[in-house]
Amino acid sequence: MKAKFILIVFMFALGTASQMRAQRQAALPADTEAPLLTLDDAVSLALSNNRLVKNSALEAQKFDFRVSTARSRRLPQFQFAMLGGELLHSFDYTFDPGAFGTYANVGPIPGKTTKIRNPAQFTTYATGSIDQPLTQQYKIGLGIKETELGRQIAREDVRAEREKIAAELRTAYFELVATQSGVEAAREVVATLEEAQRLTTRYISEKTVLRGDALDVDARLAKARYELATAQNGIATQQEHLNQVLGRDLATPFRVDPMSEEDTNDLTLAAARDRASKNRPELRQAYLKEKQAEYDRRLAKAEYIPDLSLSVRYQGLDNVSVLPANVATAGFYLSWEPFDWGRRRNNVAEKAKVVEQARNGTQETETQIAVEVGSKYRKWQEASLLLKSARIGHEAASEQFRVTTNKYREQAALIKDVLQSQAQSTETEFQYQQALSSYWSALADLGRAMGDE
C-alpha cells in the first residue's frame, strides 16, 4: 500500500507541476519571451552582418580598383620632373675662330678665340614627357586579364566564406535546439520532483511513507537540478557563440525554433558529387588559377616584344648660356633589350612549369572534393540511421513507461520500476533530440561540401 501511495504522490505531483507551469506561463506577458529566431532568419543575418564575410567582400572589392589601375596603363602616361640647385662648378666654353663658319664680306665667326663663362649659380632643369604605349598594349591587355582573374578568385573566396559561415551557423543552431530541448525537459523533471518532494515531506511527518523513499526523491531532485544548471550554462554559451556568428551583441536574447523530423531527401552520392563539381568555390578557384598561370606565362613571353611608344618630350634649362633654354621633340620612342643572356627564356620556362603545377592542383582539388563529399554523404546516412534508432528507442521507452505504470496500478510492478522507466523515457527523449541535431548538422555539412550556402 505504501508503494502504491508513492506512485499516487508521484503522479499527482506530475499533474500538479504541469498545471503550475501552465499557470506561470499564462501569467507571463508576451513581451517577456525572447523573440523567435528561425533558421532562415539566422542564416540571412549571418550572411549580412558577419564580420568575416564583410572583410571577405571588402577584399574582393579591392580588386575593382586594381582592375581600373591596370586598364589605365592603356592611356597616355604623363611624366614631369624638375631639378633646382646650385651648380658645383662653372660652365666654360671656348670657341675657335670660324667655329660657326666663314662667310663672304663677313669673315670667320667668331673672328677670334672667344671664351664664354657661366658662373656657378642657381639653375633649374625641367623635363616632361607624354608617352602613348603602342606595342605595349598587348602586354597591358594580358595584365588586365590576369587582374580580372584575380578578382574572380577573390569573389570565390567570398562565396567560400559565406558557405563556411552558413554551415557553422546551422551547426550551432541545431546544437542550440537540442540544448534548448534538454533545458525544457530538465525544467519539467525538476518541477515534478520538487512537487513530489513537497508531498513526500508532508507525508513523512504523517508517517505514511518510508524515509528511504523520501531520500530517493531527494537524490533524484538534486541530480535533476545539477543537470538543469549544466544545460542552462551550456545554452548561454551557445547563444553567445551564435550571436557572435550573427555579428551582433552577445547579450541579444532569442530563442530557436524546434526542428522537425528528418528530411525525406532522396539525394544520391553521384548527384551530390555532381553538385559539388559545379558549385564548390575551391574548384572554381583552381580553374581560375590555372588560367591565371597561363596568362602569366604569356606575359613572360611577351617580354620579347620591343616597347614602342608615341612620345612627346620637353627639356628646359635655366641660367645656362649657350645651351638652348627649351627643347621639345615629338616622335617614336623605342626601348628594347636585344641581349638578356637567357633571362627571358628561363622566365618563360619557369612560368610553363607553374601552369603545369596549376593543372595538377586542379585535378587534386577535384579528387579531394569528391572524397570529402563521399565522407559527408556517408556520415549523413549514418546520422539518418541513428535518428531512426533513437526515435524507435524513445517510442519504446515511452511505451514501457506507460505499460509499467498500468502494471503498478494492478500491483504487478514496483514503484522503483515506475521511476526507472520514467527516467529511461526522459533519457531516450534527450538522445532523440541529440540524434535529430546530429542529423541536421550532418546534412548541413553535406550541403557545405556540395557548395550550398
Highlighted features:
two-stranded parallel sheet; alpha+beta; elongated; 453 residues; 13% strand; disordered N terminus; 10 strands; 66% helix
Overall 3D form:
elongated
Mean pLDDT across the residues is: 82
Give the SSE string: HEHHEEEEEEHHEHHEEHH
How many DSSP E strands?
10
Roughly what percent helix?
Answer: 55-70%
Q: Helix count?
A: 9
Give the low-confidence spans.
1-10, 12-32
Rg estimate, integer Å = 42 Å
The largest sheet is: 4 strands, antiparallel
By secondary-structure content and strand pairing, the structural class works out as alpha+beta
What percentage of the residues does DSSP assign to strands (E)?
Answer: 5-15%
The rounded distance between the terminal residues' Cα atoms is 62 Å
**Spatial order of the strands forming the largest sheet:** 2-7-9-10
Structural summary, described in words:
The protein has about 450 residues and is α+β, with helices and mostly antiparallel strands. It has nine helices and ten strands. The protein has a four-stranded antiparallel β-sheet with strand order 2-7-9-10, with no helix packed on it. The protein has a two-stranded parallel sheet with strand order 1-8. A hairpin with a 3-residue loop joins strand 4 (about 100-105) and strand 5 (about 105-110). Helix 1 (about 1-25) packs across helix 4 (about 135-205), helix 4 (about 135-205) packs antiparallel against helix 7 (about 280-300) and helix 4 packs antiparallel against helix 9 (about 415-450). The radius of gyration is 42 Å and the shape is elongated. Mean pLDDT is about 80; it is low at about 1-10 and about 10-30.
